[in-house]
Each structure stands twice: as structure tokens, then as C-alpha cells.
Amino acid sequence: MAQLSDDCFAFGGPMMSVDEAVSLIAASVNAIPDIETVSLLDTDGRVLAGNVIAPLPLPPFTNSAVDGYAVSSARMMNTAEQTLPVVGRIQAGATSCEPLKADHAARIFTGAPLPPGADTVFMQEDVRIDPSGKVILPPGLRQGANVRPAGEDIPQGGIGLQAGQRLRPHHVALAAAFGLTHLKVVRRISVAVFSTGNELASPGEARAGAQLFDSNRFMLMAMLRRLGCEITDLGIVRDDPISLANGLKKVAGECDLILTTGGVSTGEEDHVKAAVESIGTLVMWRMAIKPGRPVAMGIIGGTPLIGLPGNPVASFVTFVHVVRPTVLALSGALPEPLIPMPVRAAFTYKKKPGRREYVRATLRKANDGALEAIKFPREGAGLLSSLVDTDGLVELGETISQIQPGQSVGFLPYASLL
Ligand code: AMP
Ligand code: MG
Q1: Which of the residue ranges 12-21, 44-53, 198-207 would you say has the lowest mean pLDDT?
Q2: Is residue 129 part of a domain?
Q3: Cα 382–383–384 angle (5° rounding)?
Q4: Ligand nearest to the CA of 199
């Protein structure tokens, strides 16, 4: 299990910026050293445990990029057409390939090995065939045109995939191109998740009049799944410090991360802080983020704990900025900074400088073709429809105090956040 010292998250300021929190996590959280070997098809979403060195060059042999005619550039003309007899027909997968005779062209197809002596391929669309079957080549083609030299993609012995890479389908493709059937990956990070609140009922259970169904836990578990985690669902814990402390004590040491939602404010019925302090060390983060603040982070018996706020949108946004980098750090993944893409604001907004704000927005294409962000009309951090009916978050940095329509702003699509 992940072992952290009790003071590893200690920090000085009363309000931590998002960037400070992310750097602190990267510097304090140790990667899990456990590795497993999994078959290629099961590697999507997993974190690569070591570099994958190219066991062969890619492409493995020099081949034609087009259907056409292979020639030796020594025979090519700069200014005049030339006519060559066509000898040989080389298909993709050809097992034997005669050397190209001087003053000849060979019929060749995409992916077929270039015959010895040939170094350039004319596309079939660019040539003519004369009545005797000879090929008429236009002048001016550069040497090496339409040829894919062995190793042009990745040389043998080069680093194909880097340790810490979170694997996606194109990384899987590269491993397959190397002929690999299995990869060594970091074992899944195990996360114990529970919600806190007397007002919560689990879907499928009876719901009393003043209760609502627990939506955060299912959102957070789904988000954790996307990060490749293994989840222990601890359900709902009542708002009392003893149940909370007992719940936490039970799972600490048995998972890599404890994730809770709700009960982290400083209200009388917010007991996560007291429960953690009674059995571990809690660093209360008043993170300078809206929606979000407060977010708690602590250590119980060496196991990190993150306590997210209860409002669903605050829970979502703080997951992205605190839980995501923690899970990546625990799994030894390369940092994946969130890079907002510039779009044009189609709204007016006022904010307090000194904190970062995320505005839920929908994208649309304006008449001039530019992408515009339209702010969701309501602001409550409890509105699930504000996430469901939008495409992503406009990020407004700490120094910004207002946004006018037409201004460029950074946009993070939901799809890029996990
Ligand atoms: P808290 O952070 O516990 O003060 O909760 C803030 C608001 O979020 C309250 O209105 C809660 O009812 C709501 N809330 C807390 N936990 C959840 C949850 N798991 N699912 C949906 N709403 C929640
Ligand atoms: Mg609560």
C-alpha cells in the first residue's frame, strides 16, 4: 500500500492555489512499485511500468508508400520524360524480390518491399503507359519520393514507449507493431470510496422525504474507473464522528487512497475533519478554487485521504484537480497537465481575483467559424444539469476579475479531464 509520512502534505499558507496543490501532490506522493504483466488488449488505460525499447525498426523494411513504379534515382531525369521497360511486379508481403535491373522500372504496390537498387517510386497516377507496355515517367521527381525507409518511424533500439505512459489505443498499436503480446504495467491503484451525509440514500434503497439519492459516489467511482483504479465501495457513512473514524480506520492500510465526499466544510455537521484528526493527520486545504473549496487532504496510517466537497459540481471540479493528479502520481504516471484550448467567450462574468474559477459552458460555432463558449445560465454548485447540459469548463485564472464577450478564454472539454 502507499506509505506516506504524516507531515508530507504540510504547507504554510492558509489558501493553496490549484497549481501549488498539484505540485505538492507530485512531490509528496510516492509511486506504487508493484508491477504486473498483462496481455496487450488489457493494457488500454494502464500505466506502463518501464520503457519499451524498439526490438525492430519501424517500418521493419524499406517499402513503397504508394502504388506505382520503383526506379533507381540514378536513372531519373530533371527536365525530360523518360521511358523505361517494366520488369517485375512486387506486391505487399512479397517473399522474394529480384534486384532492379539498370534502366528498368518495377511495378510495385503500397507496403511492398523496395527491390535492391531502387530508391524512388513514381505514383501510378503520375505516369503513362505506352502501347508497348513501357512506363513513361515525368521529370523532376525528388530522389527517395514515395519511399518509407526502414526505421524512419522508430529506429531499432529507440524508446518506443516511455515508462509512466498512460496507455491509450495508439500506444497499444505501437506495442503490437513491435510484435509484443504483453506489457508490464503498474498494478491498479486501489481506492476506497464513501459518501457522508444523513440526507443520502443509495440508489435502489428506500428514500425518506428529506433524503436525496447519492449521486457523487457513483460519479466519483466512474471517474476513478476511467483512471484505471480498482474501487472498494464503502457506501454512505452517517454524519457522526465515531462512525466516520471507524470507517476510516477499517480501510486505512488496505487501500492506496481513501476518497470521501461531503462533510469537509467547517459546519457543525461536517465531521470528516474531526474524524481524520482523531486517527491520523489532516491538512485542511482551503483551495483557491470555485466551485470547490474546501477540499481536505490527510494521512491515516500512511494512507492518503482526500475529502471532496458534497456539492456535485464542486466534487467534480476538485476531483479533476486533486484526485486525478494523486492517482497519476500513485501509479507513477507521467504528469498530464490540463491544457485549456482557446475559445471566444460569449458571456459576461465577474469574479474575485486570487482564486481560480471554472465556468460550465457549451461550445458553438459562431458565424465567422470561431468556437464560442456559452455559459450555462445558472451557477449553483449543486446543479447536475449544469454538467450534463454543457461540454466542458472555461478556466478563469487567478488574476482575472472579469470576462467580456469576445475575449479569448481557455476551455477544457470534459473528455480531456480523465
Ligand atoms: P456537504 O459538503 O456535506 O456540506 O454537502 C453540500 C451539499 O451537497 C448538500 O446539499 C448535500 O446534500 C449535497 N451532497 C453531499 N453529498 C452528496 C452526494 N454524495 N451526492 C449528492 N449530493 C450530495
Ligand atoms: Mg454533509
Answers
A1: 12-21
A2: yes
A3: 110
A4: 1
For residue 26, give the 3-state DSSP assignment.
helix
Q: Are 307 and 260 in contact (CB under 8 A)?
A: yes
**What is the model's pTM?**
0.91
Strand partners, 364: 372
> In degrees rounded to 5, what are phi and psi of residue 68?
175, -140
Please give the distance, rounded to the nearest whole angstrom, from the Cα atom of residue 311 to the centre of ligand 2. 9
Whether residues 316 and 370 fall in one domain: no
356 and 312 in one domain?
no
Are residues 412 and 295 located together in one domain of the fold? no
Residue 80: exposure state from Cβ atoms within 10 A (0-12, 13-18, ≥19): exposed
Q: Give the pLDDT score at 3.
A: 56
Ligand nearest to the CA of 201: 1
Judgement on whether residues 241 and 109 belong to the same structural domain of the protein: no
What is the overall mean pLDDT for the chain? 93
Q: Is 332 left (phi over 0), alpha (psi -120 to 50) or beta?
A: left
Number of domains forming the structure of the chain: 3
Alpha carbons 61 and 149: distance in angstroms, whole number: 7
Q: Check pocket membership of 261 for ligand 1, CB cut-off 6 A.
A: yes
Residue 310 belongs to domain spanning: 18-34+188-330
312 lines ligand 1 (CB under 6 A): yes
**Ligand 1: does its nearest atom lie under 6 Å from the Cβ of 263?**
yes
Q: Which atom of ligand 1 is nearest to the CA of 264?
A: 2
Within a domain: 271: yes
Q: Which atom of ligand 1 is nearest to the CA of 239?
A: 3
Q: What is the pLDDT of residues 257-310, one digit of tens each?
A: 999 999 988 788 888 888 888 899 877 667 899 998 889 888 898 899 999 999
Choose which residue among 200, 264, 295 to substitute to test ligand 1 binding: the one with the highest number of ligand atoms within 8 A of its C-beta.
200
Would the CB of 292 count as within 6 Å of ligand 1? Answer: no
Query: pLDDT at residue 78 above 80?
Result: no
Q: How far is CA 43 from CA 31, 54, 159, 165, 315, in A?
A: 18, 18, 18, 11, 29
**Residues near ligand 2 ion, CB 5 Å cutoff:** 197, 262-263, 310
| Index of the ligand 1 atom closest to the CA of residue 217 | 19
Of 197, 60, 75, 198, residue with least CA distance to 143 = 75
Average pLDDT on 371-395 reads: 97
